User: Which sequence fits this backbone?
């Protein structure tokens, strides 16, 4: 098949969107939209790195800070949430061997996350509303700097995303606990006990081990969804609070900003928001590692009961770890800095280290292994967290935090390496291994493009983190515009690393489009011909 036919019909014309079930189409829609938003994020990151070298004439200073605000939020909600929600709405019922509880609710999750992300991104872009993603009080309600209407739509967009997230959580737990027609009924309590890691924890102390009713990757999704629910409530509450001040300003009421205690606000905010990273991301990633390791090796997971118990123990860690964000805040009580900020944070080396060790041990037990694309990206994801987690632990030292806090170190070796290398490469591994399942046997267009994607993304992600970290160690602050060129060398190198990431993404996106064809991409967004509740045809 020549190039033009492949571009239109896909590799060998194997992808037939009309054969897809509603569940396959739903998941693919999530992934496509998530990848488009990831492209937005990469471009925004490139613009910011270039702006730090030399201010760009077509971007004003308010636009820069609006981009700085949207960049992480679009990355978290528009990209990561989309891909994660789409993947888990498919994988949970797939591994439980029963239909999703509600496809309609799944469709609404997709619509709300995609639309909400666009609303807050567009509102910030047009109005230059830029309270930064921390939303530190009273900046979000400072209408001397920001448009009240722009801020209103920005916060409403985030609230819409949270509504979609809430539907996702409900759908996941209902899918785990409901009994399909014709099935033998299982107790809800027993299913939840297995899903949250309680059974695995208890099995450590039992001679007669109880059977696990819920597969381990599903248990990780369920445990992560608990933190996701708490995070959703925190962000929604924060949004309502900000909206009260915005509506007051629109109606002409002068609400006193001093009525809100800034320190209490920051503790509440970080307690909820940190659940995205320390609870949600690490647990979801661990569950994905376990699934990928089992699919790649065809073997059961090493130390499964310990892996399940770690999910439960992580509950304590993720709920009490937030204070490491406030180590340099002079008003933060010292007891919280030491107990929550340092000690609990250091404990994550054990919980995440266990997931790391269990995954590698499972892979090692199946050697020799062929270096497939999913395996390469899985190893890249493991490497990303192996680099990023210790960098975060370093920041969680009161002494070092005085040097590293609010510098490019925080967003470089820790955040960007964790997200770009650890999280994103794990997601790419899942996409590559699930691609034939979700497309009913379609073939990847080019293995050479997969290799280009891998090396560009890995090198670019680690390089960007390293060079941003070097700038941070030399005193370059985050959220600050430098116009005198004092950090040009490291920012140029970081921008070049970002270019590699962009090249890798283009190679990946082109490869996927060529694999399914333009007709296939459009077909994904057409209504499914099949009305079956089954995940796969047949």
Assistant:
């Amino acid at each position: 098949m020549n190039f033009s036919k492949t571009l239109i019909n896909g590799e060998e014309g194997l992808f037939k969107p009309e054969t897809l079930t509603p569940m396959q189409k739903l998941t693919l829609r999530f992934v496509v939209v998530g990848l488009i938003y990831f492209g937005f994020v990469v471009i925004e990151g490139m613009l910011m790195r270039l702006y730090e070298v030399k201010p760009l004439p077509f971007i004003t200073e308010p636009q820069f800070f609006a981009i700085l605000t949207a960049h992480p939020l679009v990355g978290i909600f528009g990209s990561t949430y989309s891909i994660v929600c789409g993947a888990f709405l498919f994988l949970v019922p797939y591994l439980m061997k029963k239909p999703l509880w509600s496809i309609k609710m799944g469709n609404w999750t997709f619509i709300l996350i995609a639309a909400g992300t666009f609303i807050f991104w567009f509102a910030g872009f047009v109005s230059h509303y830029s309270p930064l993603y921390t939303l530190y009080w009273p900046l979000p309600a400072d209408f001397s700097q920001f448009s009240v209407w722009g801020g209103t739509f920005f916060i409403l967009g985030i609230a819409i995303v949270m509504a979609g997230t809430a539907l996702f959580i409900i759908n996941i737990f209902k899918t785990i606990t409901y009994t399909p027609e014709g099935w033998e009924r299982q107790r809800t309590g027993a299913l939840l006990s297995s899903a949250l890691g309680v059974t695995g924890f208890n099995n450590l102390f039992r001679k007669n081990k109880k059977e696990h009713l819920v597969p381990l990757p599903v248990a990780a999704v369920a445990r992560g969804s608990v933190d996701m629910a708490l995070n959703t409530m925190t962000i929604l509450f924060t949004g309502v609070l900000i909206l009260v001040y915005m509506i007051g300003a629109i109606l002409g009421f002068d609400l006193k900003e001093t009525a809100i205690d800034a320190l209490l606000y920051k503790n509440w905010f970080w307690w909820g928001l940190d659940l995205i990273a320390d609870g949600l991301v690490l647990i979801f990633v661990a569950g994905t590692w376990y699934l990928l390791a089992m699919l790649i090796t065809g073997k059961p997971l090493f130390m499964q009961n310990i892996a399940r118990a770690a999910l439960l123990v992580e509950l304590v860690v993720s709920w009490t770890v937030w204070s490491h964000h406030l180590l340099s805040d002079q008003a933060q009580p010292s007891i919280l800095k030491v107990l929550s900020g340092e000690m609990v944070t250091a404990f994550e080396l054990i919980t995440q280290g266990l997931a790391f060790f269990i995954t590698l041990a499972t892979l090692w037990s199946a050697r020799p292994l062929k270096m497939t694309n999913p395996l390469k990206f899985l190893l890249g994801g493991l490497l990303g967290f192996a680099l990023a987690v210790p960098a975060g632990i370093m920041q969680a030292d009161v002494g070092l935090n005085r040097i590293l806090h609010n510098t490019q170190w925080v967003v470089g070796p820790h955040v960007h390496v964790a997200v770009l290398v650890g999280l994103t490469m794990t997601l790419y591994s899942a996409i590559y291994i699930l691609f034939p399942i979700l497309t009913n046997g379609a073939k990847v267009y080019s293995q050479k493009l997969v290799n280009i994607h891998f090396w560009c993304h890995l090198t670019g992600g680690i390089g960007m983190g390293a060079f941003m970290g070097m700038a941070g160690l030399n005193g370059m602050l985050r959220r600050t515009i430098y116009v005198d060129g004092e950090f040009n060398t490291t920012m140029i190198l970081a921008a070049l690393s970002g270019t590699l990431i962009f090249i890798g993404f283009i190679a990946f996106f082109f490869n996927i489009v060529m694999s399914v064809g333009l007709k296939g991409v459009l077909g994904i967004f057409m209504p499914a011909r099949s009305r079956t509740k089954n995940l796969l045809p047949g």
In short: The CA atoms of residues 200 and 305 lie 5 Å apart. The two ends are 28 Å apart (CA to CA). The mean pLDDT is 91.
